[in-house]
Amino acid sequence: MGADAYEYYQKALIAEKNQKIDDAILYTQSALNLASNDALLHTKLAGLYQQKGDWEKALREYKSALSSNPNDAFVYISIGNILQQHSDYNGALNAYNQAMRLSDDYKYNYLNIATVKRLQGKYDEAVDYYKKFLMYYPSHTEARESLAIIYSHQNKPLLAKEQYEYIYNTAPSSFKSYSGYGKTLLDTNNVDRAIEILTTAIESNPNDAQTHGSLAMAYARKHDVVNAEKEFQTALTLAPDADSIRYNYASFLASQNKWDKAKENYNICLANNPKNINLLYDLGMVYQKQNDHAKAIENFEKALLQQPDNDEIKKQLARSYHLNSQYQEALNIYLALLPKDPKNPKLLYNTALAYHSLQNYPEAIRYYTESLAAEQSDQTKNDLVQAYVSYGNEFADKEDFKSAIKQYKSATALNENDFYANSGLANAYYNLGMKDEAISSYEKAISIEPANKQIYTEYGETLSKFNMTDEAEGAFRKAVELDATNTGGYIGLGDNFVSQKLYDKALVEYQKALDITPADPIILIKMGNVYKDKDNSEKAIELYKKAIDSDPNNTDAMFNIGSVLIEQEKLEEAKTYYQKIVDIKPDFDYTYYALGIIEEKEKNYPKAIEYYQKFISSTKDKDKHNSVSQKIEELEKTIKSQELSKQQEQTQTKPEEPKVESPNVQKPAEKTPVEELSTPPSTTEFLD
């Protein structure tokens, strides 16, 4: 730089000192006119343009300076600063790296690079450069604060807290990052300290909505509902559109079981963030808690669309499907999750539960067993017991009592004191006629639940079946002693007396049951049967008709009326009742048997055979099937015999001359013996 150029340069410095930037620029340009390749002058002019805010001209001058002196690291740093300020982070980073290659002694450049990396969201790389910088300048608070902010973004609150505490302990009087420090303390569960620091932050800046929101969360952690609500309201008043604060407020409301207000705030957030997974998931959980499973499913499905591989969302969606009785949909999700986590006891349990709800007991048993193998659980064990019991009940319903016993025994092997398993065993043994085993199982069930009125009723029925009438009466008495409104106990007593032909005593007990449940068709039918046995047919029919008044489609009462009418030889009237039964319940096999008897009594043998054939094609009563089959054969022989006789009469030669004879008085035909009408095995003589 020559003397004249230097003179202009000195004038430029004086003008800059006096804040006359435009004059300084003119003097520097004059100097450059005399020394155009002087790097110092280009650098000075670039700095002046920066002060004016003309960054494009500043960049041009810095580049001119580099043309004269390409090894000036500080020029690269200045270029980097300008590019960084204008969000050209890649350009800034290139400039800083060039400076680092030229002068690695300038350690502040680590801070520049760290800042750009942070702005680019490259947090791990930024952390490395901040650490390098802090090795040389450990007390640099801004660098430590930036590092703390990054750790918070990375969900590393302990590391963030460490940086804030270093700053606070090193220079407490100049510490300003109370809000960030308080949030970090909250995230590390230092709640009391967080409240203290956040309160200090608010004293310094009472209008900071985010700090009020953090303080609200701290109070919520302390279960200080009043102060939490107050701080949330303050935060939302200051920043009503701050979705992060409103989201936390909604979560706070949900934790207080204030479901409707929680939904209101979640939905406000969701309007601005319709695809936010956390919002959709949390809103789904609120609906699930309110048992609005359809809405829960809707939100979980939307969340899953945003993140199809999120297993937690899938689990809650499956749970809502299950709670909404959509068991197959729930099961499909569980089965899809299992290959990823085949020994997860909860997942195995939920799979078993879905199968259980679908009444697929073998698969339910399988998965309950696998869940127990993975983790012992009383709940799982109890549900496995109930699955065995339900499976046993399924076999019992099909009258496969041996298979039922196998399942009930599997249940008692897990819990010998399970009431339902023991009562199921008792019932199965009863149906197989295994007296001692049935009685033993009933006594075991009674010892487990001695106040269970139903078990005494069933026990009484078992004892009565095995002709232990005194013991049966005692069981029934115990049932009504436990519950004076137990109609089953009174009916059992009545049935027990009927089996001993103690009809008057039976009527007393049936009447007690009827007093509790007036117009009960079952009781009315039983009372009608007693009067039938007492040869009071009119009273029997009266009671059967009352049963029909109570239940117009009661085919048992209709059948019994028909049976009485047959005995009274009122065949056509009986037939009308049986025809009604056919219309109502066409698979009632004994109706066809009764109609066959009527047609046989009326000597309409082809029609009788037709009804008998319908009976044998539908009945499960093997003995009756065989006897009716023989009856059909006999009737067919009778028909053939009649046809043969008729043919012989038609072929007889008539006399050549008519004679007057006395009227041909034929001997009345003998009545074909009619077998007494039987009823299904489940009744005494008439249908109960």
Structural overview:
This protein is mostly helical. It has a domain at 554-640 and 678-688: Serine Threonine Protein Phosphatase 5, Tetratricopeptide repeat (Alpha Horseshoe). It is 75% helix and 0% strand. It has helices spanning 3-17, 21-34, 39-52, 55-68, 73-85, 89-102, 108-119, 123-136, 141-153, 157-170, 178-187, 191-204, 209-221, 225-238, 243-255, 259-272, 277-289, 293-306, 311-323, 327-337, 345-357, 361-374, 378-397, 401-414, 419-431, 435-448, 453-465, 469-482, 487-499, 503-516, 521-533, 537-550, 555-567, 571-584, 589-601, 605-618, 622-651. 40% of the residues are buried.
What is the number of strand segments? 0
Radius of gyration of CA atoms, rounded to a whole number? 49 Å
Task: Summarize model confidence as the mean pLDDT.
Answer: 91
Q: What gap, in angstroms, lies between the N and C termini?
A: 127 Å
CATH topology of the domain at 554-640 and 678-688: Serine Threonine Protein Phosphatase 5, Tetratricopeptide repeat
Q: CATH homologous superfamily name of the domain at 554-640 and 678-688?
A: Tetratricopeptide repeat domain
Uncertain stretches: 653-688
For this structure, the quaternary state is single chain
The level-1 CATH class of the domain at 554-640 and 678-688: Mainly Alpha
Helix percent reads: over 70%
**CATH architectural name of the domain at 554-640 and 678-688:** Alpha Horseshoe
